[in-house]
Amino acid sequence: MNRYTLESLKSFTKDVLMAMGSSEESATLAAKVLLSADIRGIDSHGVARLSGYVRLWEAGRINATPILKIIHETPTTAVIDGDGGLGLVVAPYAMQVAMEKAETYGTGWVSVKNSNHYGIAGYHAMLPLEKDMIGMSMTNASPLVAPTFSKSRMLGTNPISVAIPAKTEPAFVADMATTTTANGKLEVLQRKEEDAPNGWIQDKDGKPTQNAYGVKEGGALLPLGGNRVQGSHKGYALSSIVDIFSAVLSGANYGPWVPPFVSFLSPPENPVGEGIGHFLGAMRVDAFRPKEDFLNHMDNWIKTFRSAETVDGEEKVLIPGDPEREMETIRTKNGIPLLSPVENDLKGLAEKFSINFPTHII
Amino acid sequence: MNRYTLESLKSFTKDVLMAMGSSEESATLAAKVLLSADIRGIDSHGVARLSGYVRLWEAGRINATPILKIIHETPTTAVIDGDGGLGLVVAPYAMQVAMEKAETYGTGWVSVKNSNHYGIAGYHAMLPLEKDMIGMSMTNASPLVAPTFSKSRMLGTNPISVAIPAKTEPAFVADMATTTTANGKLEVLQRKEEDAPNGWIQDKDGKPTQNAYGVKEGGALLPLGGNRVQGSHKGYALSSIVDIFSAVLSGANYGPWVPPFVSFLSPPENPVGEGIGHFLGAMRVDAFRPKEDFLNHMDNWIKTFRSAETVDGEEKVLIPGDPEREMETIRTKNGIPLLSPVENDLKGLAEKFSINFPTHII
């Protein structure tokens, strides 16, 4: 696989978004958010999605020049209308509003409607870290997941991210779909012609299957837990909470009405809201106890868990965020590898918009 | 099994707590909270625990006459010192504080230290419902759960509950341990001499086991997901978030320092905080959008999911809270059944404190 520097892919992404009509400021931010997935190793949510955004824009389903508005607020809450913009731009704005409220009142909570895919949940949750705030981020997404006991796709992979600052230790950053696995991992199995593990997917009749194409053939991803005995009703509940906080609080589409990310599928008729929804929160740690006390105990928490005794064959116990941070170090040094279908897709965009495609690292 | 009316067990519990020295007001509240578990079918968290509370009180580890204090606050946040009191009393007070803040500022968030076991998480999360607020409740608990890749018990079953009001539909009430299963379900299997399903527990070496006594023999419960391939790192992250919000924010004990619920095990030496911790939150739905809009869409959300197509052999798709509500209807009519060991245990308390034990339903 060819590898590219972060800066070169960011610059290319910015050029594509500006060719779509985005302002330079918006395009710069969106490129930064999108590439934060690639550098952290979450390839399914990074630059590989760029052509998908372009196709949605061509279909009139993404507004490249949105006017973001607060349409309802209290001292600690707000609802933002994303005006059909890129979630990559809408969500950082919403988090900014949440952080300003937290600055004054201790906490801030913002629900967003009329938005689109916002990249990785973790990017947004991590924004408050530099102000010694806890960040939270969640979003609903196109329905691919069946509730426990159902054969229908009713929910998205609806991720939750929570980022918690520490003092000398790197921050605790959980960033997780509320399903057993992500759709991107099925694509990896399909390429390798391997079966899917138990508990990942069900077929169109709602029966467990190990067919890695099960979702494409009308089945569904399973909520975290995988089946009732192993707690899938809990994953279903978590995914539902994400859906309700992101969309029923804001006025976005929820459940089966969430518009699909792919342009070749039309959004459902008779929508119950506008676009997709996000929910963002910020809490100042010193709204609860003196900052130094919190940060010192958080360091102790992290050190204690990282040094917990391992089972045979495992090197160490991980803290949420460790794998992505390790990948970031590697890719900052070695560049971001692109699969050739992704590379070709991006070259197609370069041609479409008459933009230079970057040279890979030799 | 003998069955008892809710009122008779509530009254008995109140008498026991007053014999421990609780005020009538505190004892009445604590009995109500404790029995809310039994009436909803969560027997592991109800009156069966009463003698455990008494033993902790005898060991000087529960204060029957706590003075609850707000020790830190902002407009939307507070930390409460539970003064070693029953969590059954401390948590409703904390939620009251959260709701008052939400009334004025849109949301309220309270972290609690120096508390004890608080019964079912769902009771506390449901308190804001009557004011058309969303309620959230979580607590840490004695370490019985191993992080992914570890053989050590580092976390409790650390439940999360979220309650969301609707209009004509009953509320959405998720109330879930962040483990695959609850410890109480292992006790059921032990009585039946049955094996545990895969993904519930590991043995003392951290290997998966189906031995229902695995935890008693030095093993651990597993985080939701069960193993790494099926997402246990997500359950581990969720449980960690509960631990940090409940205890690192408040100054309670966290991780392996959480004191055990059983009086025959001593609390760890060199504690990192005081008692156990809870985290409670309330958000006014009209802090986000007009109340009627929210409630109507919530009704639609619930109806849509409840009528989702089922897999063969399942009668319907459940909404979080449905099973407990159905059990409440049945037990309100037929009474609460007590296993004979529980019944004998309670009769022992009646004798100890010279209190009348109620007559069962004929």
List the helices and strands and how they pair.
2 copies of one chain form a homodimer.
Chain A: E1 2-4, H1 6-19, H2 24-39, H3 50-58, E2 69-73, E3 77-81, H4 87-105, E4 107-115, H5 121-126, E5 133-139, E6 160-164, E7 172-176, H6 183-192, E8 201-202, E9 208-209, E10 220-221, H7 232-248, E11 276-284, H8 291-306, H9 322-334, E12 336-338, H10 340-353
Parallel strand pairs in A: 3-4
Antiparallel strand pairs in A: 1-12, 2-3, 4-11, 5-6, 5-11, 6-7, 8-9, 8-10
Helix pairs in contact in A: 1-2
Can you describe this structure?
- Two copies of one chain form a homodimer.
- In chain A, the strands form three sheets. Chain A has a seven-stranded mixed beta sheet with strand order 2-3-4-11-5-6-7. Chain A has a three-stranded antiparallel beta sheet with strand order 9-8-10, with no helix packed on it.
- Chain A folds into three domains: 1-64 and 335-362, Hypothetical Oxidoreductase Yiak, Chain: A, domain 1 (Orthogonal Bundle), CATH 1.10.1530.10; 66-178 and 227-320, Ribosomal Protein S8, Chain: A, domain 1 (2-Layer Sandwich); 181-221, 2-Layer Sandwich (Wheat Germ Agglutinin (Isolectin 2), domain 1).
- With 362 residues, chain A is of the alpha+beta class.
- In chain A, helix 1 crosses helix 2 (24-39).
- The model of chain A has no long low-confidence stretch (mean pLDDT 97).
- In chain A, 37% of the residues lie in helices and 16% in strands.
- The longest helix of chain A has 19 residues, at 87-105.
- Chains A and B meet through strand 4, strand 7, helix 7 and helix 8 of A and strand 4, strand 7, helix 7 and helix 8 of B.
